[in-house]
Give the backbone structure.
Amino acid sequence: MAMIKVQKGTKDILPNEMPIWHFMEKKAEEVFTAYGAKEIRTPIFEATELFARGVGDTTDIVNKEMYTFEKSDRSLTLRPENTAGVVRSFIENGMHRLSAPVKLWYKGPMFRYERPQAGRQRQFHQVGVEVFGIKQATADAEVILMAVDYLKALGLNDLTVELNSLGCPKCREEFKQRLKDVIRPYLPQLCEDCQTRFEKNPLRLLDCKSPECQEIYSKPEIQAVIQGDFICEECSSHFEELKSYLDVLGIKYERNKLLVRGLDYYNRTVFEIKSNNLGSQNAVCGGGRYDSLVKNLGGEDTPAIGFAMGMERLASLLGEKQEERLTAYIVSNNTLEAVKLTQELRQKGISCEFDLTNKKFVKQLEKASKVSKYAVILGEDEISKGEVTVKNLDTSEQTTVKREELKLS
Ligand code: ATP
Ligand code: MG
């Protein structure tokens, strides 16, 4: 019979890779909890409408990348990102009544129908944070700090924070107009995607990966518009305030005026964190402020800012971590006593196994040295005295202790 294989763009996370994933998850909980954030888990699928409205129907995600299906006449979609789901839950559960800031973090799988390549899968995982209720730049600084701190806790240092301000809908409108005016003469030469973006979402023109389009956008008259300062006084002082917090905190950043981010709902602060050790898929973190989203999805007007990180990309930077070993392996020719002792240790929270096939003593000892930190030896002599002999398999040190006093870590 033909073998059924894992789907294109998806991967098993195998037991030997788990230590890295446990490490990333544990650090997320530690770091985000230290900032007062609480974990939230929302469903993997939501109404398609949520993403159309919450991510934006001019985005690649909504136009090309969604896994959408019908059930009982409802259009459902596997979540391509988790901000929309968290915002839905925030509104539905009346979280605007909680005292601000409401800080939430999440981890879990996301789904996008993209061309699989290194660092890009169809099912991938994100860990992310959303902070609701604060419009001041202190929240922007705090969120960026959470991202940087998390990456530091993972031991990742060779990273660059890129920062930009997209202004507010008012000042951005004028910028979009100026951008369109200066790009219009080149319209027929742009790629198909950019021709659509030109009308629907002109900011996204700057994000185009096609070298031909980039060459056009690097023309002096277009660069003059891009590099010029377009944001209004209020947006500008918000941005200056954020930068002064980051300076005080010692967080280095680079201004990138081409950083526009894919989603429709961002305003003011947007940021990305890039690794200097990944290939072309080098963004490990993307985030920004989305002050109008909660209201657009039917909630109270609530400012918010957040980020998401790609866990597969983080994992590939972390390399390999030693496989987790058992704490103890029971070595004994008395299977009944071995079963009892194994259970005693497991009850104490010590990970433990014994030989299910009653192999020779030496074979059991060999196995112990492969899979565990300690061999707990239970010969007839030990059994009669109510003792066990513990052998540290790294140092070969051996001690004998009373069975009920056995402690291992
Ligand atoms: P990219 O420019 O790499 O397509 P994006 O702007 O689509 O990223 P976001 O929606 O901001 O990505 O998601 C945040 C992070 O999630 C990215 O920085 C990346 O690390 C990760 N990510 C996004 N899409 C994928 C994917 N298809 N496979 C693996 N990781 C991904
Ligand atoms: Mg993308």
Q: What stands out?
A: The mean pLDDT is 94. Residues 81, 112, 114, 119-121, 124, 126, 262, 281, 283-286, 308-310, 312-313 surround adenosine-5'-triphosphate (ligand 1) (CB under 6 Å).
